[in-house]
Design goal:
Elements lengths: L1 E5 L3 E5 L11 E6 L4 H6 L11 E3 L9 E13 L2 E9 L3 E3 L13 E6 L11 E6 L3 E9 L10 E8 L4 E7 L15 E13 L7 E12 L9 E7 L9 H5 L8 E3 L4 E3 L6 H6 L2 H4 L10 H4 L3 H27 L19 H9 L1 H31 L4 H8 L20 E2 L11 E5 L1
Parallel strand pairs: 2-14, 5-18
Antiparallel strand pairs: 1-19, 3-15, 4-9, 5-6, 6-7, 7-8, 8-13, 9-10, 10-11, 11-12, 12-15, 13-14, 16-17
Length: 439
């Protein structure tokens, strides 16, 4: 039995994903049961060095648990080099830095994510093996918690130091599409996201971490059967370029830009998104030039400039609203900064002038109505564009600057995302917000 204690943190998750139909990050190939390559891609753990093969005792006897595994090599994932991963009992590997309870949401490598419970059978084990160039994680004879009678599943994921990812399946008793997702998501593929940290002004010393899923690879579930395998090959990303010249002249699937201040090449969509925005790299990358720029003079106070820009934009919105109301009723409210003398009603000349100006007033009213209709139409078009292009710059601009009162997807019990507890030694506290103590 495991006791969980939570630190005072706030986590809110918003998902924006794009299926890899155009193969921007990975290319995949599926091998059927009759293909000899399927057998070659399966790693026989029994023939490996016994000292390096580890059976995780806790994961092999618990449900919805996850444990950190340190790698002996740098594993490139979406262009980022990872040195530690989190293996979960639910048939997937979590790749994120921020450890939270909803590991099934994003940032995963999932050969077959489902509601597996190794504790229901003595033969169920979670095994991993690291030979210095590859990590093999095998879920051996695991059963579905809510469908034990369907039989056991045996499959594995192999992560190579060159970035290749192999999913191999030995025993799949039923079609993956028939596995229930009521109590646990059922996914096969990859996912990555970036984390943005916001400070909540109403609550001091509390930060809100928002996770944006910028890409997902979803594999076809109907092709996963006994003795099948899927091999995914990584494609070049902007992060691999270390100089400005090679960055802006790159001919890959991404629009790479070079940020002189960070000395980094990026498309703007990776795990360093917050650094990219905080250092005004999107403004700097508008100039596709490798000239040396004095970033200290351009951006002496980045944080202050961002705050001032936000305040100025709000001020401009208020001023525009005031101008609109003034045009609708020009004789009612004086504009700010000007002193207007309101003359008495007994002034017949002013009264006759107002009567003569009735026609222009109607014209202004019509123009105001047309302006409002144009604004509403533009708003609808922008909303439709953002909905169909969730990873565009405009979408991220509005989402990252949304007020804290806007609705967000919060994970609670019964939300469809099961809670995973991370296995930690007694007395140690993980930076996520979970502390596990064995009772």
């Amino acid at each position: 039995r495991w006791k969980l204690r939570f630190k005072k943190k706030v986590y809110i998750y918003i998902y924006i994903y794009m299926e890899d139909t155009d193969h921007n990050y990975y290319t995949s190939k599926t091998y059927g049961p009759t293909d000899p390559i399927s057998k070659d891609l399966w790693v026989n753990v029994d023939q490996m060095d016994k000292e390096k093969v580890k059976i995780h005792g806790i994961l092999s006897n618990t449900h919805r648990q996850a444990a950190r595994v340190n790698l002996s090599f740098d594993f490139p994932f979406y262009g980022h080099f990872l040195r530690d991963l989190t293996v979960a009992t639910g048939g997937f590997i979590y790749t994120g830095d921020v450890v939270h309870r909803m590991l099934t949401a994003t940032q995963y490598i999932a050969p077959l994510m489902a509601n597996f419970d190794p504790s229901v059978s003595r033969n169920s084990t979670v095994i991993y093996f690291d030979n210095g160039t590859a990590l093999v994680v095998q879920w051996d004879h695991v059963h579905l918690q809510d469908s034990y009678n369907l039989g056991s599943f045996t499959f594995q994921a192999t992560l190579h130091s060159d970035g290749r990812i192999v999913f191999a399946y030995k025993e799949i008793p039923i079609e993956v599409a028939q596995i229930s997702s009521v109590n646990h998501p059922v996914k096969v593929g990859l996912s990555d996201a970036f984390v943005v940290v916001h400070r909540i002004q109403q609550i001091p010393n509390v930060r809100r971490r928002t996770i944006y899923e910028y890409h997902r690879v979803e594999l076809t579930k109907t092709k996963i059967t006994n003795s099948t395998a899927v091999e995914m090959m990584p494609l070049p990303t902007c992060l691999q370029f270390t100089s400005c010249g090679s960055c802006i002249s790159s001919q890959i699937n991404f629009n790479c830009s070079w940020c002189h201040r960070l000395r980094r090449c990026s498309s703007g969509f990776d795990r360093h998104r917050q650094d990219w925005v905080d250092n005004s790299c999107p403004d700097e990358t508008k100039d596709k030039s490798c000239d040396i720029i004095n970033t200290t003079q351009l951006y002496p106070f980045t944080t202050t400039l961002v705050a001032k820009t936000t305040g100025r934009s709000r001020g401009e919105t208020t001023t525009a609203g005031a101008s609109l109301s003034t045009s609708l009723s020009p004789t009612s409210v004086p504009t700010e900064g000007k002193t207007t003398n309101v003359r008495p009603k007994a002034d017949n000349s002013n009264y006759s002038a107002e009567r003569k100006g009735t026609h222009p007033l109607h014209t202004g009213l019509i123009l105001g109505i047309l302006m409002v209709m144009l604004i509403m139409a533009a708003t609808v078009l922008v909303t439709v564009y953002i909905y169909h292009h969730p990873t565009s710059a405009a979408s991220l601009f509005f989402i990252e600057r949304r007020p804290s009162r806007w609705p967000a997807m919060k994970f609670r019990r019964g939300s469809g995302h099961p809670a995973y507890a991370e296995v930690e030694p007694v007395g140690q506290e993980k930076e996520g917000f979970i502390e596990s103590e064995q009772c």
